[in-house]
Each structure stands twice: as structure tokens, then as C-alpha cells.
Please model this.
Amino acid sequence: MRRRLPGLRAESFAHEGDRAALQALQKVPLLPKVIQKFHEVGLDRRMYLLNMASAVRCGPRQFRTVYGIFRECCAVLDVPEPELYVTANPFPNAFAGGVERPYITLRSSILDALDDAHLYHLIGHELGHVKAGHVLYKSVAAVLLPLLEMLGRRTFGLGDVAGMGLLMAMAQWSRMAELTADRAGLLASQSLETSIEANLRLCAGISRFAHELDADEFLLQARAYQDAGPADKVLLFLSGSAALTHPMPVHRAKELERWANSGAYDRILAGFDAA
Model:
């Protein structure tokens, strides 16, 4: 039985990089215009309707096992239940959306990639986005280029410094927000090994050899990555990772292990605020 965490605050598990990146993002002068345009053209409603029209909503009589795990995760993290959907897609992924009407959508392939225990981490991760208030900026990030086009911005070259600055700041915040959501996934699974295994399976992909994966070896790989020199990481950053919306999988695993070993995770489970 997983311990429920009544009164859990998002600040208790927020990654420090999430807070710093959000503050930097909110200082970008172009951001208010982009958010205004997002609401003005009704993109939140459009995205909600598109998702509802192309996915199956879960409930007691529809994907009842997944729905049961979802309800328990909501109870553990003290999150009002958003809507839950499953959609057909061969590329494993899941996402949270809906500023006005929150929802979580799981791709069918991710249900094949993960066992029931791993789904607690996955669903807890997405609920973490909802609880931490990430959905607005995540939704804006998903359609940022079209929004910039609506504002007459051009960002495919280096001609629009403001547009490029917003893109980079949004990507940096998005990566940090994922680390916050990973912590919520751990609080839902309440097993570091299970959460690391979930990240490992998503990194390795769907395979008939999934039973041969080893979480401890994955963490050793993550530690080796962390030991890479600053010059190597700068090279990786300049080669394209700066524009990614998710951190590298091995970095996520090491960050989650670091947080679990810091004592903050145990304090939250014990009922103390770790913020």
C-alpha cells in the first residue's frame, strides 16, 4: 500500500532548477504577448477537443486497470482527478494538457513498455505537471512556433533575437520542469528502483529483451555521464541539446537518485515538508 500524502505542496518536490528557469522565462519580454495570443485564439480549447476526439477516455468501465492506478496516484499526491485518456501511437510517450480542463493522455505503446508498477511513476509524473502548474507553459511550448508566426516573428534563423531568446528560455524551463515531475513520479511509485526502471524502459524502448534490463547498471551509466568533463557537456549542449524539451534520460535517472538520497523524499513520506 502506498502512503498517501494529504496536503502535499508542489513546492515540496519542485526541482531547484525548475524555479530558477521559470523566473528567467517570466522575465522574457515576449512571453506575455505569446500567452495572450494563446488564449486569444482559443488554442487550449482546440487542443482539448482534438485530444478528446482522437483518444479513449478511461473510467471504471474503460481501461479499468489503468484507471485504478490513476485514481490511486491522484489520492497519493492529493491531486483532484483530471481526465485520463489512452490514444493509439507507436512511439511511447504521455503528456498532460488542458489549462481550463486538465487531462492526461497515455499513448498505447507506453502501456506495452511499462508494467503496472512502472505506471505509478509514469502517471505520477504527469500528475506532477498538473499539480506544479506546468500545464499552461507546457501547452504554450507545444505550439510556440505557430504562436510566434502569428505575432510576425521569424525564428528559423537568427533574425529575431527576441523569438530565439523565448524559444531557448522555454526549452530550458521545460527540461527543468521534467525533473520536478520525475520527483512526483517517485512519490507516486514510492520505490526508487521502480522509478529508475520506468526511465530505463522508456530510454531502451519496447523490446522482447526488456527482462534483461538492469536498473543498477543504468545508474552506473548515469554516474559515468555525470563524471564527463565540462567541455564535453558544453559540446553536447551546443550540438543541439539546448533546444530539447526533455533532459537526457541518464541525467534524469541520476537527478532522481540524488534527490532520493538527499533525505527530502523520505521527509515527505514521513509527513514533513521538504521545501
The longest helix spans residues 161-189.
